[in-house]
Amino acid sequence: MTTTSAVSKENVEVGLELPPLHFDVSLTTLAKDVAGTRDIYEIHHNSEFAKANGARDMFLNTMWYQGLLGRYLTDWAGSNSFVRKIGFDMRGTNCPGDHLVVRGKVTGVRSEDARTLVDLDVSIDNQLQKDTVVARVTVELG
Description:
Blueprint: E1 21-24, H1 27-37, H2 47-52, H3 62-77, E2 82-90, E3 99-112, E4 115-125, E5 133-141
Antiparallel strand pairs: 1-3, 2-5, 3-4, 4-5
């Protein structure tokens, strides 16, 4: 999902479901994740280490999810939007070979100081587990 224009403020209402974003995790994804975030903990780049420590395989890190969630939200809301608040729980791992689906739903719309703020629940699923990541976010529409 990539948009070139912002969502219309008039069309945002509670219950609105955002288009899903599909993402395939590869070894290259993990390499970029570790290099880009400088998180060199072996659980994020060494399959044997991850498995020896109880994980299904090496997996994406916290900062990668922050980036994916930011991309998902601004692709939907437009480049003039601003992610005002984000909080999320990591409930499962996402590993090389996984197909991720990011989904969002509007849970609130309000005006504050002449700004339109939209609250959303966002989730990331993979082919093995629903809600590997669940997020609560607030986006200011541009």
